[in-house]
């Protein structure tokens, strides 16, 4: 992380108010999400344990509260914080401790599906089996095998977790499509075998967001992690929030990424710098009817956002403000 001194720091925003015009965040709750939740509830009677996958960069933000009220309150439940390679290992134990203590969660695990080793995936099934054994008989499915269900919001790596489970326990390749866009899985699929000994099956499910995200910062953190589509929130707004977050957390690594000499709290300054540096321009017709070149703001915003998504700004816990300091 780059730390610099600049007399302008005192003028930086302490609360997020955007410097750019934007269309604002929109509610994104397509019909397949509503149907997906109903399908999950319909399968609940034959499910023994629920695996909820979430992004490790936002362990306290964006989890759908309806999962607890409609699904996990009556079933063994493991919260899997995936993409843990994108946060510092030193904060994992603090996150786990806080979630177990304050969020009605019995078990928290960290996974990295891209790791050359097993990335924590191999611990999921043994943990699920033990949790099922410890539950009351009437909660179980009474099936001759164990049924799991994977749930979560879009684009947190549910399909990647499933494929890694199959690869580790069955030496099989992909069972479900994997993508970097929210909304790849749209229906509750038929059972996918993930283990022969013991015999275990798993239901994949569509990513389901909370119907209305009332907290703007939560929505923007979700967007940074690509659980919401960029064009639904607005690329310029996402980029502006990223700049605000980096400055507020004294992370000035964007200076090296953008080859800038000093930080700025104005995203328009960042966009202009990127446009000049990379010739990101577009042609428009001005009021006089002449064709002129102007900065391609969307392209500049995407370039800046990708700095975060590609890891140029370091391992960032976007929910660091939720993590309580040890007393």
TrEMBL record:
**Pfam family name, one:** MMR_HSR1
Q: Per the record, GO CC terms?
A: mitochondrial inner membrane
Q: Does the keyword Mitochondrion apply?
A: yes
Q: Which keywords annotate this record?
A: GTP-binding, Membrane, Mitochondrion, Mitochondrion inner membrane, Nucleotide-binding, Transit peptide
Cited InterPro entries: G_CP_dom (IPR030378), GTP-bd (IPR006073), GTP-bd_ortho_bundle_sf (IPR023179), GTPase_MTG1 (IPR016478), P-loop_NTPase (IPR027417)
Biological process terms in GO annotation: mitochondrial translation
- List, for all copies, the residue spans of the domain called CP-type G: 36-211
Q: Does the keyword Nucleotide-binding apply?
A: yes
Sample GO molecular function, one term: GTP binding
Its record classes its membrane topology as: Peripheral membrane protein
Which PANTHER family has this protein been placed in?
A: MITOCHONDRIAL RIBOSOME-ASSOCIATED GTPASE 1
Q: What does this protein do?
A: Plays a role in the regulation of the mitochondrial ribosome assembly and of translational activity. Displays mitochondrial GTPase activity.
Q: Which family does the record claim for this protein? A: Belongs to the TRAFAC class YlqF/YawG GTPase family. MTG1 subfamily.
For this entry, the protein name equals: Mitochondrial GTPase 1
List the source organism: Oedothorax gibbosus
């Amino acid at each position: 992380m780059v730390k610099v001194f600049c007399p302008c720091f005192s003028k930086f925003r302490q609360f997020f108010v955007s410097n750019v015009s934007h269309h604002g965040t929109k509610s994104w709750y397509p019909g397949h999400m509503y149907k997906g939740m109903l399908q999950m509830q319909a399968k609940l009677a034959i499910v023994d344990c629920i695996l909820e996958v979430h992004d490790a960069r936002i362990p306290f933000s964006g989890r759908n509260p309806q999962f607890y009220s409609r699904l996990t309150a009556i079933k063994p439940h493991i919260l899997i914080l995936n993409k843990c390679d994108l946060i510092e290992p030193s904060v994992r134990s603090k996150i786990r401790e806080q979630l177990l203590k304050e969020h009605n969660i019995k078990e928290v695990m960290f996974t990295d599906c891209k790791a050359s080793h097993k990335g924590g995936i191999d611990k999921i099934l043994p943990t699920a089996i033990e949790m099922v054994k410890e539950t009351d008989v009437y909660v179980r499915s009474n099936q001759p095998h164990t049924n799991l269900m994977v749930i979560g919001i879009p684009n947190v790596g549910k399909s990647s977790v499933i494929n890694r489970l199959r690869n580790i326990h069955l030496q099989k390749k992909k069972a479900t499509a994997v993508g970097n866009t929210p909304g790849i899985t749209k229906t509750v699929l038929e059972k996918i075998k993930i283990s022969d000994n013991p015999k275990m099956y798993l239901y994949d499910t569509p990513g389901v967001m909370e119907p209305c995200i009332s907290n703007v910062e939560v929505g923007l953190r979700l967007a940074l992690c690509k659980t919401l589509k960029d064009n639904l929130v607005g690329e310029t707004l996402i980029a502006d929030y990223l700049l605000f977050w980096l400055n507020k957390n004294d992370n000035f690594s964007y200076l090296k990424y953008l080859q800038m000499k000093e930080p700025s709290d104005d995203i328009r300054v960042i966009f202009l710098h990127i446009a000049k540096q990379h010739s990101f321009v577009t042609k428009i017709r001005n009021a006089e009817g002449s064709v002129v070149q102007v900065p391609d703001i969307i392209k500049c915003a995407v370039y800046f956002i990708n700095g975060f998504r590609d890891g140029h700004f370091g391992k960032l816990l976007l929910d660091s403000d939720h993590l309580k300091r040890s007393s």
